[in-house]
Every structure is written in structure tokens, then in C-alpha cells.
Write a structure and sequence with these properties.
Blueprint (H helix, E strand, L loop, with lengths): L4 H26 L4 H32 L11 H9 L3
Helix pairs in contact: 1-2, 2-3
């Protein structure tokens, strides 16, 4: 993934937060915590991952369409880009 440093830092922070939240969910399950609390935390993990994914797509959208960027891959077609975006839905 390429992009401006601020966007990359934001994505990495969101992924690190999700990583910590997921570790918390695992710990909660191991401690036999209340189902409502576990599901609430799991939903937070899911939202954090979704936001990171959307930010990646938003940041890389131009590069994916035009092929501009550091990778040597071909530009994505509109159908490929739509499929990629919908994988987050």
C-alpha cells in the first residue's frame, strides 16, 4: 500500500487498535465473561477493521485505477475495483 504518510499512519493505528481489541475479546472468552460484553467488543473490532479497510480503499483509489504508485501491477478495471470495494461490505 502506498499513499501519504498520514493516511498510512492512520490505517496502521486502526489496525493496531483492532489487534488489541481482538486480544481483549479472546481474553474475555477465556475468562468466561458475559456474552453481551464479548459481542459488544467483537463489534468494536469489526468496526475498526472496516474503517481501516475503507481508508485503504479511499487512499489507494487513484493508484488502483491509474496504476500510479510504486507497484508494477496493471491498473484495475472498474469491475475489479468494485469487487475489491464490495469485499468490505
Amino acid at each position: 500500500m502506498t499513499g501519504d504518510e498520514d493516511s498510512i499512519a492512520l490505517v496502521l493505528n486502526r489496525l493496531r487498535r483492532a489487534h488489541g481489541q481482538l486480544a481483549g475479546v479472546i481474553s474475555m472468552i477465556e475468562q468466561d465473561r458475559d456474552c453481551k460484553d464479548v459481542v459488544t467488543q467483537l463489534a468494536a473490532v469489526s468496526r475498526a477493521l472496516d474503517k481501516a479497510g475503507f481508508k485503504i480503499v479511499a487512499t489507494s483509489l487513484r493508484e488502483c485505477i491509474t496504476g500510479d504508485g510504486s507497484s508494477s501491477t496493471e491498473p484495475m478495471t472498474e469491475a475489479e475495483l468494485e469487487k475489491l470495494f464490495l469485499t468490505l461490505a
